[in-house]
Amino acid sequence: MREVIARHGIAAQRRLGQNFLLDLNLTGRIARGAGPLGEANVIEIGAGPGGLTRALLAEGAPHVVAIERDRGCLAALGELAAAYPGRLEIVAGDALELDLVALTPAPRKIVANLPYNIATVLLLGWLDRVGAFDSLTLMFQREVALRLIASPRSKSYGRLSVMTQWLAEPRILFDVPARAFVPPPKVTSSIVAIVPRAQPLAPAAKPLLERVTAAAFGQRRKMLRASLATLGVPVEALLSSTGVAPTARAEELTVAEFCALARALAEGPPGPVDRS
Fold this sequence. Notes:
- This protein is α/β, with parallel strands linked by helices.
- The chain has helices spanning about 1-10, 25-35, 50-60, 75-85, 100-105, 120-125, 140-150, 160-165, 205-220, 225, 235-240, 255-265, and strands at about 20, 40-45, 65-70, 90, 110-115, 135-140, 170-175, 180, 190-195.
């Protein structure tokens, strides 16, 4: 891979959040972490000079769609496409602007070393249609990975934890040290496997769940009776209808309890009881 980079004059661009992973043992481990690839259409984000792309092809993926916006890397990817005729499709574009579902038919898997600066935004966008993918095997900085898998009452638990775990089951597969990259980032990275749930963990409308979690975690040190005041509804009645204690804080609630609050918000808080 270093020879490929030198031959094509490729340099990691900071503005694109590029850190190239050149260790073929690690790229192979990531590809294997995505599970059997023999029948999957694999979408890779930020293919760069093709380190992970090579591993995906070598592990038997019959069709890889490699998305790369750095035109300096396209020639290197073109060489790889020639070495694997008919199996590698190169898309020159920005993953933030592409409809991944439209790129290739099911079954689909996303496998990617995501740029740190857009990783969370990409994931939240994919969650809107997460059922269209068999799995997502993604690299994040470890701090973000810990947020994805965090449990209630932990310091990493937050909106990202709730929204991800509501729709999918995330787990950390392994860490990747900074020294494995060129150039090395300042943080440790983690590979996370995200498997969509057949159904959301509990019923809720996504926009309302987002509103509730934004309000609750926006002031996470406050009790819910104060932090949820921004919702513009009678908070005490809302909490009472779901059995959630007004003195609880956001980090104490389970995903199911947040979903209950979102459902109650949709229905409106109960009115006063008629005792006549």
